[in-house]
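[09:14] KT: can someone run the structure on this one? pasting the chain below
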Amino acid sequence: MTKKDKKQGKLIVFSAPSGSGKTTIVRHLLGIEALNLEFSISATSRDKRGNEVDGKDYYFLSTKAFKSKIKNEEFLEWEEVYRDNFYGTLKTEVERIWAMGKHVIFDIDVSGGLRIKRKFPEQTLAVFVKPPSIDELKIRLKQRQTESDEKISMRVAKASAELATAPLFDKIVVNDSLENALNEAEVLVNDFVNS
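[09:31] RB: done, structure tokens below
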């Protein structure tokens, strides 16, 4: 990415432990035309869940293809979230959105969000979405009915470590009331893209 590209748009990162509500918040913000946002579709090596669509929800890659792109430095950021379970942001995805004249909004894990903030400190608003409690997080994950109890336990264990990173983000939105969290996120993003 050239210096010229970097001036084209802003980067808005939403990160949180699984089940905190970041995806719901990001979808809400994408529906607000005045914010001029476009969703950054992450690449992943994990299997599709439910009705997920390749190229819409994620770019689904084999583990081998993902590792090849890492080797070729095609990612802005990437992470092996669980063993052989990779997630990342392709550089071409950000370039695609900036070419549309839009700001990029990310719904990504904590490590990836912080890496983007470090690479583009002036252009990035990094928001951490915090659940009201670990117990509430566990309830939300079970209500999804998309993963085994073992996977949920892994996510809850990871959430404790992720919560410790919250102070590294620019802003923290506590999602104890979805309506309040949506309003707070809207104000933060609107102020940032118009600054």
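[09:33] KT: thanks! The chain has eight helices and nine strands.
[09:34] RB: yep, looked fine to me
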